[in-house]
Amino acid sequence: MAGAEAALASLSPLKTDPAPVPEPAGTASGTAAMSLAAAARTGSEARVSKAALATKLLSLSGVFAVHKPKGPTSAELLNRLKEKLLAEAGMPFPEWTKRKKQILKIGHGGTLDSAARGVLVVGIGRGTKMLTSMLSGSKRYIAIGELGKATDTLDSTGKVTEEKPYDKITQEDIESILQKFTGNIMQVPPLYSALKKDGQRLSTLMKRGEVVEAKPARPVTVYSLSLQKFQPPFFTLDVECGGGFYIRSLVSDIGKELSSCANVLELTRTKQGPFTLEEHALPEDKWTINDIAQSLEYCSSLLPAEFALKKSKPEESKEQVLSCEYISLNETKGEDDVIKIF
User: Fold this and answer.
1) d(CA 148, CA 145)
2) Is 198 a catalytic residue?
3) Which of 18, 51, 211, 263 has its CA 20 to 30 A from that of 272?
4) How far apart are CA 213 and CA 195, in angstroms?
5) Alpha-carbon distance 287 to 66, whole Å?
């Protein structure tokens, strides 16, 4: 018996491999797996989100307004707007701008000088066809003029060409001559403008040092004109005018009428058509697809019924409606009346 017990005691225990135990989620490998899965889901969701935004962007049609700051030209601002929208939708800007056919059609109606700020009306999609009608509509400006100095550009960005005394000019003097510049009048446009000679802008020819003759006076309309403030040598005007009107020419002509000279120091467009700077012009931080979609919906109610976008024909595909050639339509009215479509 004792021998048997000794034999049993001497036997080694049976060795078996332990069953694998799942690692807790907090371990390194578990965390990595979860991170990869989350990243995959996020990437997939991001692609779906970008695709949805791209579809929404390409479906936008109508007219809205943006706030143009001082500095960029109207065309430069439009490119910046287009670049932001394409980037948000995951559509690289250089790739789309190099294509002969542009899927995103966007343009502005009514150029603002680079030194000016205010309302810039923008058309997107089929809304670009409505821009021509915006050119003939009324515009409102607040202009600050400076007496005693004339410049080659008729504003503060140009070279001073003449200086005259202004110390005898009173507020009553200015107010008494404003009626001469109200109603249907004749106006000579500035040499520095988008008007063309032999297919080239007068401003481009002037910058090259070429001799340029002034364009003949043409009929324009001023609906209202008032003096808001006079603190010599500065005077502030509130002007509502029709298409083709140049505030720079107005201020220069007022200076001449006062036996002095003047140029535009600051210019703000406060209204174009039904769009006002305070209520409708989107600042740059609102240049998003969703914000513009909301603005288009709101602004559509401000437009006359005849400007409403017509529904596409059933046989027209989305691509046919939204694709367009790269075009630039320059009106003959002037720098304030130029349609740019990109």
Assistant:
1) 10
2) no
3) 263
4) 12
5) 8
In Å, how far are 92, 135, 269, 285, 302 from 276, measured between CA atoms?
32, 15, 9, 18, 11
Task: For the chain of 342 residues, list the mean pLDDT of each consecutive stretch of 10.
Answer: 44 47 54 56 60 92 96 93 93 59 81 93 92 80 98 93 97 98 95 60 58 77 98 98 93 98 98 95 97 95 68 37 30 41 52
Q: Which residues of 78-107 are buried (b: 16+ CB within 10 A; e: fewer)?
A: bbebbbebbebbebebeebeeeeebbbbbb
> Which bin fits 90, alpha (ψ -120 to 50), beta or left (φ > 0)?
left
302: number of Cβ within 10 Å: 16
- Left if phi > 0, otherwise alpha if psi is -120 to 50, otherwise beta: which for 170? beta
Whether the CB-CB separation of 74 and 337 falls below 8 Å is answered with no
| Residue 150 φ/ψ region, left for φ over 0, alpha for ψ in the -120 to 50 degree band, beta for the rest | beta
**Rg of the chain over all Cα atoms, to the nearest angstrom:** 33
Alpha helices in the chain (DSSP H): 2-10, 28-59, 74-88, 93-98, 131-135, 171-177, 202-207, 247-257, 289-300, 318-322
